């Protein structure tokens, strides 16, 4: 046919086809189109970390358990048994999960409009309603966010998703699954989670910008999060700003749906509570979340001075052995040494983590207490990183914080023990056995 | 065709060519590369030129079948009447390529021996003790594990043979004797000029390929296996930047000038390994002297053993 239309049209046709295939394959400006919006979420909100029993197997490859309410009853889903055994939608009736697809179209639109107004679109992200001081300190200016959005689309989107929901195209195939920012909970940080008596609760405090930066630069060993240390510091800073933006937006959305809607058990719909104005609620909530982020920037974990010179082998030996006693919570031994509190790490890290079970976390995914004999530390392998983990726990994962019950010296003992644990030669040198 | 030829001539002077070799492997590899390029290039141009000349020369010619109808019984003999029973031609196009291939086969033996043969793996007793490190490929980054500076210094003085050997012992592709004082790094490999480096290459997930074009190194990383790779850089590209307070690469250390094009040496993954294959990039930092390298290693070591700033 091409021969008939003649050479000129054939060349024209080929040129058009080539231009089309290039543009369709994504060879464009690497920025979001202005038409793309953050939509109100459709996947269930998880409100508890007690979604089922502990188990030995994680969810299978290619599966992220909570994509939609319907998914829960599909066969290899870890919720399959629990959801099928209960005749009713147990999770939803007990508000362990909330299905936002049951919100009426009208309310959904109101919420969508309110969020769009204050947080913009992926092409033009912004955070309004927080005061200028917070915006400066958290670096949430529209220019910074636009730059962050550009890099997020290139480097982060396919795992973490457009609204930071941890449900990008590759998320199903990655275990542990990518982080969902929309609950405002972050695991690895150096911000104090332990409140003193009389203080406000500091549970699930936000991370500092430096913590997010460190995660980007170093990656998370033992997971699919790679290191981005070849990007410039300025680019990474803008990514941190954008992640904070997504997290604030997501948390406001999460909290608005969780607080203002009730399940109508007869109709199965989510109804707005009486006398609630969604837009007003968003307006009230956003500054609070912004303030929480701001507070976290100046509340680092207090680190006690390392108690002896690092090269002192005898003191190290004693410290490591004290650490093991604390880890195992051996009451008799501890009594002899006149130590009262016990951390009892072993109750979760069974057999030093070698036989630990998977459990549900606050995002509704399965996680496992670390196998400490492997020497892989997701939150960083510096001694001070381990100190942070023991002092303030790991938010959302079920790892409790021990900063309130253990003294600084005891935490260092545990850190020393955990650092020695994976290496046979070191265990022999410091006189401990783990068999 | 002409444009391609022109490009072929212009490319090297514009740097669109094999990058300059910066290690002792480059002599062997470049020799083989060019010899094969010249042979294949010569025959490619020859055959294409003949084809084009004949296209014009015989355009509109009725063709052999009509010009001289065959009398042979076989349909193939009818189709190709001119190619019957010409054994000397067949001999020529069999023997000449065979000879060329045989030449290439023998010419590459010494290169293979020096670069890949396991019996030539640099070891403790050799001329120069190599610095050894483990590189774990992973979707999508290179995780590097160095021995501590203390142990490395011992090895350099020809001490601690057992320790040296145990670093390179792997079981199921994973190190068997990790040590507490090992120094981890991500996406960067440091070494110094003239020092042989022995990399124990493995992968934590799928097949990757450890490719450093400037060093003429390319080796697939296979799951469950640990493969030794070695090379010796002959040029340095790194110095300490006082303003930025860190080591920067991309410096031509002979002239002291920045030259990112030829002195920024990437480790690229050369085996499609997933969506992030394109961004699986590391860098090679070659220090000018051994003491510079140890300065970097000790600094990294201190950062990795940080006990934090005490707040009380």
Provide a descriptive summary of the structure in words.
The complex is a heterodimer of chains A (about 425) and B (about 300). By secondary structure, chain A is mostly helical. Chain A has 16 helices and 6 strands. In chain A, the strands form 3 sheets. A two-stranded antiparallel ribbon of chain A has the order 1-2. A two-stranded antiparallel ribbon of chain A has the order 3-4. In chain A, strands 5-6 form a two-stranded antiparallel ribbon. In chain A, β5 (about 360) and β6 form a beta hairpin. The longest helix of chain A is centred in the middle third of the chain and has 28 residues, at about 235-260. The longest helix of chain B is centred in the N-terminal third of the chain and has 32 residues, at about 25-55. Chain B is an alpha+beta fold and about 300 residues long. Chain B has helices at about 1-15, 25-55, 65, 75-80, 85-105, 110-115, 150-155, 160-165, 260-265, 290-305, and strands at about 130-140, 140-145, 170, 175, 185, 190, 195-205, 210, 215-220, 225-230, 240, 245-250, 250, 255-260, 265-270, 280-285. Chain B folds into 2 domains: about 25-40 and about 80-115; about 130-305, Immunoglobulin-like. In chain B, a hairpin with a 4-residue loop joins β11 and β12. The chains are: A mainly alpha (about 425), B alpha+beta (about 300).
Features:
heterodimer, A: 435 residues, two-stranded antiparallel sheet, 6 strands, globular, B: 312 residues, alpha+beta, Immunoglobulin-like, five-stranded mixed sheet
Considering DSSP H and I runs of 4 or more, what fraction of the residues of chain B is helical? 25-40%
Q: Unreliable stretches of chain A, pLDDT < 50, 5 or more residues?
A: none
Record field, number of beta strands of chain A: 6
Largest interface: A-B, 32 and 29 residues
Q: What is the terminal-to-terminal distance of chain B?
A: 75 Å
Average pLDDT number of chain B: 87
Q: In percent terms, what proportion of residues of chain B is strand? A: 15-25%
